[in-house]
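Input record, target 12 of the design panel.
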C-alpha cells in the first residue's frame, strides 16, 4: 500500500516541474486564471508528450510495480486539481478580508 503511494508520489514529483513551469508562463502573460488552466491542463499534457517522445521507457519501473500509465496520469491530474482547489480557497479567504 505505502510502496504504491510512494510510486504515485515519485511520478507526480517528476511531472511537477512541467506543470509549474507552464503555470508560471501563464501567470506571467495572462494572470492567475491562466496559471490555473496552464497548471491543470497544459503542464501535464506537455509532460506527457515529453515522456512519450523522449523517455519512452520511463514507465517500465511503474509497470513492474503494478501501475498503469492511466493510473499515474489520473493521479497527476487529481493532485493538480486538489492544489488548484486549495489555491481557490486561499484566494477566497484573502479577498474576503
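The sequence produced for target 12 reads:
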Amino acid at each position: 500500500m505505502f510502496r504504491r503511494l510512494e510510486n504515485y508520489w515519485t511520478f507526480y514529483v517528476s511531472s511537477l516541474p512541467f506543470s509549474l513551469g507552464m503555470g508560471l508562463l501563464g501567470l506571467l502573460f495572462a494572470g492567475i486564471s491562466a496559471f490555473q488552466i496552464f497548471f491543470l491542463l497544459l503542464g501535464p499534457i506537455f509532460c506527457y508528450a515529453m515522456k512519450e517522445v523522449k523517455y519512452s521507457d520511463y514507465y517500465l519501473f511503474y509497470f513492474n510495480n503494478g501501475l498503469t500509465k492511466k493510473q499515474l496520469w489520473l493521479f497527476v491530474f487529481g493532485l493538480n486539481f486538489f492544489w488548484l482547489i486549495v489555491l481557490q480557497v486561499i484566494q477566497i479567504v484573502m479577498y474576503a478580508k
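The chain has one domain: 2-96.
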